[in-house]
UniProtKB/TrEMBL annotation:
The protein's name: Nucleoside triphosphate pyrophosphohydrolase
InterPro entries: MazG-like_dom (IPR004518), NTP-PPase_MazG-like_C (IPR048011), NTP-PPase_MazG-like_N (IPR048015), NTP_PyrPHydrolase_MazG (IPR011551)
Cited SUPFAM superfamilies: all-alpha NTP pyrophosphatases
Lineage of producing organism: Bacteria, Pseudomonadati, Pseudomonadota, Alphaproteobacteria, Rhodobacterales
GO BP of this protein: dATP catabolic process; dGTP catabolic process; dTTP catabolic process; dUTP catabolic process; response to stress; TTP catabolic process; UTP catabolic process
EC number(s) given by UniProt: 3.6.1.8
PANTHER family: NUCLEOSIDE TRIPHOSPHATE PYROPHOSPHOHYDROLASE
NCBIfam families reported in the protein's UniProt record: mazG, PRK09562.1
Organism this protein belongs to: Rubellimicrobium mesophilum DSM 19309
Catalytic activity: ATP + H2O = AMP + diphosphate + H(+)
Amino acid sequence: MPSPTDELSRLLAIMARLRDPETGCAWDVEQTFATIAPYTIEEAYEVADAIQKEDWAGLKGELGDLLLQAVYHAQMAKEAGYFDFGDMAKAVSDKMVARHPHVFGSEEVRSAEEQTRAWEAQKARERGGRTLDGVALALPALKRAEKLQARAARVGFDWPDARPVLDKIAEEAREVWEARDEGADRVEEEMGDLLFVCANLARWLGVDPEAALRRANAKFERRFAIVEDRLKERGRTPAQSTLDEMDAIWNEVRAADKA
């Protein structure tokens, strides 16, 4: 069986060949960090999707695709003289060792809660600067909102409990409604405030807001597909049906889910 080291060396060699200006693939050669970044994000979501589906065979392939993205960026960085894959691997290895002195150093073994606090303190020292620095702009907006609020909470800028967050959601919802005649920009601003507070409530309840919304999206898709199927049995499409008719089927599906 080939070793992981052998296979990684093979993958690095394949990427170098693909990026060769003379003998490589024209598409791969013309790519840049900026053009590849969206694929990197997409592959990370496909990893998360395979995990959510418990598709372990598929996860192997998706993780491979994500690894390819890291190799791709490392090859472009090597060509530009920034760093190579070895530098990248060393940086993350050094970081893991530095952040786990209770494992790789002389500190006492900590509980999971103590380790979380120490981890965040170490990351804060590494970041320097302001509390909210380093929360990636490319994160999905709901996930970034959760992280921004969690960072602020660590320095004491937070609600005392979840109840005021619920009250704030009601307040923001009213403001969205009141802004409906003040133009699209104003409505967008208020809608953003509402979503931001919803992300905060998710954080208080220990829920990943991005995962929750993905789950809701999947549920909506599944239920609406059943609505379409039942209408098809009646010889109609949704566009040929009334809202009352579709709503009745929807409620039947919803009730069956809760049974």
